[in-house]
Amino acid sequence: MTMAQVSRKFFVASIFMWILPIAILYGFQHDWFPGFSHISPYSQTLLSGFMAVISVNIMLAFYICMAIKEPNDRHEPDPAFVAKAKASITKPSNAAKQD
How far from chain centre, in Å, is Cα 3? Predict the structure, then answer.
């Protein structure tokens, strides 16, 4: 998966995490959801806030599931780098030579 695709997924998920709660709060205040206009303003505010928080948690869970399902390509290190690293570990340092 390229960096552009990962960035696009993150951007879309972030946009939904902003838009969804605001739409829920706005919808409750402007009676978009039938059946909730008869409750008290206090209860309506509480319910809309609770639903907005739940929507963000659902989006986070969805984003985490998408991230877990991404392919896990194992990266193989450069053999020349590994050989140099092993050689630098086994070679005595200058401080050890002076002792």
Answer: 15
Look at the chain and report how many structural domains it folds into: 1
Helix (H) or strand (E) holding 49: helix 41-68
Q: Quote the CA–CA distance of 58 and 9 in Å, as a whole number.
A: 15
DSSP assignment string, 11-24? HHHHHHHHHHHHHH
Within 8 A by CB and 6+ apart from 24, the residues are 48, 51, 52, 55
Can you tell me whether residue 94 is helix, strand or coil? helix
- What pTM did the predictor assign? 0.61
Element (H, E) at 83: helix 79-90
Q: Is 79 helix (H, G, I), strand (E, B) or coil?
A: helix
3-22 pLDDT, tens digit per residue, is 788 888 889 889 988 999 99
